[in-house]
Amino acid sequence: MDKSANDPLTPAGQSSSEPVAQQSIRDLRARIGLTQEEFAHAIAVTVSTVNRWENGHAKPSKLAWRAIQALARKHGIPAGERSRARQ
Hints:
Layout: H1 18-32, H2 36-43, H3 47-54, H4 62-74, H5 79-83
Helix pairs in contact: 2-3
């Protein structure tokens, strides 16, 4: 079984579950305890970009996904928990 199909923090285009991805970004950000502005600054994107991701109007690039995953690791959220951030 392909692990990326179960991981909402999988780069865009590799998972067919887009609502899960947008919700997982919001949930991960909340779990870390950051505002959209702080989250955006931490991964070097604009606040409007984070807002578009969370509202399903855009998908993070592969580079952005790597930054999101690195931020999650930095805050001690293991891969298994990142994939369950939605629960």
